[in-house]
Specification:
Layout (H helix, E strand, L loop, with lengths): L13 H12 L4 H8 L3 H13 L1 H15 L3 H4 L7 H19 L7 H8 L15
Helix pairs in contact: 1-2, 1-3, 1-6, 1-7, 2-3, 4-6, 6-7
Length: 132
């Protein structure tokens, strides 16, 4: 079991990776993100590519979780974003906020909640498993 502060097979803490994902969703490039986070550009590019390759699946998974968790899913659903990548990031953040709203004792930062929801596998190649 991993602590919620990390993701499987990633050396950086989830808050740093999440910040990079949010910056990319906002339109920043990998070099600018790397400079702001003090990480190698190749590392940041790897995060962004991994997330982008799974963005549609992640958006679907987290939207499903949001509908199950939110008191009013219609109000909790984020508006469509400029890209599938940004939609996926918005869905991850919305689920984290719904968890914190439903369970007030959860005081963990947004990206740690996302790590917990994904069991540390947010950036894993075969996660989430296919629905059967």
């Amino acid at each position: 079991m991993l602590p919620v502060s990390v993701l499987s097979r990633r050396a950086d803490v989830v808050e740093v990776i999440g910040a990079g994902l949010q910056m990319k969703a906002g339109g920043a490039g990998h070099r600018a993100i790397a400079d702001l986070l003090g990480r190698p550009a190749t590392t940041v590019r790897g995060w962004l590519r991994r997330f982008a390759a799974r963005a549609a699946v992640l958006a679907g998974f987290f939207t499903t979780q949001l509908v199950a968790l939110a008191a009013d899913p219609v109000l909790a659903l984020p508006a469509p974003a400029a890209s599938v990548f940004a939609d996926a990031v918005a869905a991850v953040i919305a689920v984290s906020m719904a968890v914190r709203a439903r369970f007030p004792m959860v005081a963990a930062p947004i990206w740690q909640v996302a790590s917990a929801v994904s069991r540390g596998s947010l950036m894993a190649p075969r996660w989430p498993p296919p629905v059967r």
